[in-house]
């Protein structure tokens, strides 16, 4: 391992590391050799370094690191910068600027999988790890500064100077004097995945024995065909699905029918708001010129752009081509329930057989940690003789409980319990977005809820499934079909203690590495204390006061690449003279898996303002 040490005062830290097996050290300081050698103990430490084969450099500026190393010698595995400071009585702003220059420079000489270690005195970093914690404006804001250079904080732990043999801190106010390092913290940064680039993507499908193409809505281009449920997948969502299927097969003959399910659905969902559905227009007559993209999908250049426009009935926002053809209109499937209902209507299965359907479904929804525009649904359907449906429901839910208990055996955390609650006993306001949408599809008998044992409250994200029953006539007898719909993503989140749905879709390999061979484990964030940024936007509504909040949230998702974590209505105002209405919203930007800089967020906000003006017809204030 090649280690680069910056800002060494008396080189005591470098001397302590010198001689460690498998390491090659390059120790540097900002001062000249003459000045550095005059510090207490420096001469002895320098002699030890040189005897140990370390390289020593003087007059090194931490903001210009690539100037001191040839290209083939820039790949350092670890860069240490202990207690950086501009010197003398420099304030927090100057030291933030120093850190910014350093992080940008470090990115140019760090190996791809390398680490940057920055030790700061207690309170300087501005993270919750500092005790006591300074006010944000009075700190060095190290995580936000590092994000500007593409780094995330992956670990933080005490800087224990007493455990480093021979180490003596020096340099207080640019003098050969020590300073207090009690409570100091070592911040470990790693590279973030780069900002996402969303290229237009089209999917080719076959409908009624004819090939057709459709352009994927931009907000979903990084979520189509991710293969979470495929055989070779190690994703926790697949683990949950397989465990459930295995347990259910102990009580029912199980038949999986995933492969024949179409990604598109041509139907009107009675009772479902149009704004909650991703509408698609097909172009069977178009043969687009294509090129392969990195994710294996097809990128088309001849497809017209999919955008939001109002349908002819003014029922809401639909996603259609700019040509405006509303014939042959399809939507990305918002549920697998219609496919399960079709199985029962065909009457081609043996009563008592459990048909299991699973796959991604797509819903436009408001932004929140548990509101998912795409998730993996699992629908179990079983037809039984009339009067036997209660026993079938109890058996299904009992097997789900057994599966959850089994999965929790490897998770050392407070246990979760599954309960079956009658739909009539739950107020609409208590439902999470998954349950609220399911309520629009058709009548629900029971909600399947998950909660922490002893909490006494189900919580906002606790509804993980719903149970429905429908009576069908088959010949001379009546059968009752029992449908159980489960949100696999939400189950995986609650089991692994994943606080935000976006983490399930993170492209960073550090996510899946936490689940070797598909084993469920408690998730540990690899990006600690990510910075958040708030921006407000105020606008006049168009004439008539029509405003689609779901479309507003979807545009925020698009322009930010899912970096908006919340949208809060701050104010609603109506002008007495004209009756015009104005809304003011606050957007909070934060990413849990990649670096997000202040400048990047400012650009997102500007683009968001332009997009809502163009696509929603509002007038910015």
From TrEMBL:
Enzyme Commission code: 6.1.1.20
Record flagged with keyword Phosphoprotein: no
A Pfam entry, by short name: FDX-ACB
Domain FDX-ACB positions: 528-621
Catalytic reaction annotation: tRNA(Phe) + L-phenylalanine + ATP = L-phenylalanyl-tRNA(Phe) + AMP + diphosphate + H(+)
Molecular function (Gene Ontology), one example: ATP binding
Keywords tagged on the record: Aminoacyl-tRNA synthetase, ATP-binding, Ligase, Mitochondrion, Nucleotide-binding, Protein biosynthesis, Transit peptide
Main location: mitochondrion
Top EC class for this record: ligase
A GO CC term assigned to this protein in UniProt: mitochondrial matrix
Cell compartments where the protein resides: Mitochondrion matrix
Protein's GO biological process: rRNA base methylation; translation
InterPro entries: aa-tRNA-synth_II/BPL/LPL, BMT5-like, Fdx_antiC-bd, Fdx_antiC-bd_sf, SAM-dependent_MTases_sf
Keyword Aminoacyl-tRNA synthetase: yes
Family membership: Belongs to the class-II aminoacyl-tRNA synthetase family.
Protein name from the UniProt record: phenylalanine--tRNA ligase
Species name: Rhinopomastus cyanomelas
